Amino acid sequence: MMLHWLEQRREELLRFAGELVATPSPNLPGDERAVVAIILAELERLGLAGAEVAAKEPHRPNVIFRLQGQQPGPVLMLCGHSDTKPVGDATHWRTDPFQPVIRDGKLFGLGSTDMKGAVAAMIYATAALKHCETPLAGDVLLVINADEERSMRFGSEFLSTEYGLRADVALLGEPSGIDGPEFEFLHLLSRGISCFKIRVHGTQMHSSLTDRLPSINANVQLAEVLARMSRELRLTFQSHPLCSAPTVNLGVKIEGGVGYGVCPGLAEFQSDIRTLPGMTRQQLEADLERCLDAIRRDNPGLRVELEFEQPALDWTPPTEVSAEHPLVAALLGAAEQVLGWRPKLCAFPGGTDASKFHAVAGIPTIPSFGPGWLNLAHGPNECVGVEAIIQAAKMYSLAAQTYLSGARP
Ligand SMILES: [Zn+2]
What is the mean pLDDT of residues 264-291? Predict the structure, then answer.
């Protein structure tokens, strides 16, 4: 019934996805008002009246629509972000990034894969549930948030803190293909991120006097510290079945010294570590200090210190939804029915709004199951499969129906 309803509206759904792409919402600068106006008009047109707009600042609106079930039960949040990355260098695009073009079964345009295709699919999935009067024991909470691509302050962070968003489980429609087919993976885990600096002190002085007076060159010391840490740093973690190890990127940025004529007095490098469930900031700090202590012991004159970035850059925790969660079974069942096969369970490589919804608001959040390919996001000639948008709408509506059927294993 719902699948038929959606099949009848293929052209409408694709037209709406195209309209979202044609309405710019790049972040920076960050202003979702125009795209939210399109979303609100479409919700009205589809008979989903009564959406709420919640905003920390008026130009950063979030849309929240509740489809109330006939029976009480859990709240399933279907969530997508309405902002995109900026265009960047437009000369690499073969089409106008704001002019949706369908070619070879794909919809091209900025934000098509990340994630306006999924937003359109979630809205139509909700409309299908409503129009087919699908019995629901619990509510579908449709959340289209702002500001995923930059600070999250006006979107998932605002909703998780000041607004007080509540749901029992959330699904983000981030693109879940990587280099294979669309819907290749169902991502249950989102790695965390920890950012910090290692700072090395030297003696800032006239470089012509370093043969006569004691001096320490902070840049040379930094090179030594960076090389040793990259060889010797050992992190404490437990390998996860969906993701074997954290990533360690030391020296993602290096700064130091003043210039010719000056012995460098200060140098530092930034580093980021993508963490696994079970890792803690305290343990990570102990691992880093242990490594630095070994370097200090071998260089008695060395002054080196560790400084974590300000929150939340210092520690955005990893998140994970159990493979046993009933929504996972509902999504796999929906995939089997619509695609004819089951996506592999996996860990999402990048950061998502799960870091707020899950870690701050306490809503277990599946970070990614959506049309498109993650490797095309944030780059030129971004596109999403046309058929995948329709399939996503079908799978979201079926999974909601199953999850909110009132039956629990
Ligand atoms: Zn995204």
Answer: 97
| Three-state helix/strand/coil letters over 361-389 | CCCCEECECCCCEHHHCCCCCCEEEHHHH
β-strand 303-308 against 192-201: which pairing, if any?
Answer: antiparallel
Model confidence pTM above 0.85? yes
Q: Which parts of 309-369 are beta strand (E)? A: 319-320, 344-348, 365-366
Fold identical between 2-191+318-403 and 193-308?
Answer: no
352 CA distance to ligand 1 middle (Å): 7
Report cis status (omega within 30 of 0) of the bond before 115: yes
Domain boundaries, the chain: 2-191+318-403, 193-308
Q: Alpha helix locations (H) across 178-307?
A: 218-232, 281-298
Cα 250 to ligand 1 centre (Å): 26
Instruction: Report the CATH number of the 2-191+318-403 domain.
Output: 3.40.630.10
pLDDT at 179: 86
CA distance 113 to 26: 14
Q: Which two tokens stand for residue 322?
A: 């159990």
| CA dist., res. 171 & res. 358, Å (int) | 11
Architecture field, domain 193-308: 2-Layer Sandwich (3.30)
- 197 vs 301: CA distance, rounded Å: 20
pLDDT at 382 over 80: yes
The number of residues making up the chain comes to: 409
Q: Distance from the CA of 255 to the center of ligand 1, in angstroms?
A: 31
C-alpha–C-alpha distance, residues 334 and 312, integer Å: 36
CA dist list (Å): 394 to 51, 226, 237, 305, 381: 22, 50, 39, 53, 26
CA-CA-CA-CA torsion for 393, 394, 395, 398, nearest 10 degrees?
Answer: 120
Ligand 1 center to residue 360 CA distance, Å?
A: 19
Ligand 1 centre distance from Cα of residue 9 (Å): 25
Give the Å distance between the CA of 218 and the centre of ligand 1.
40
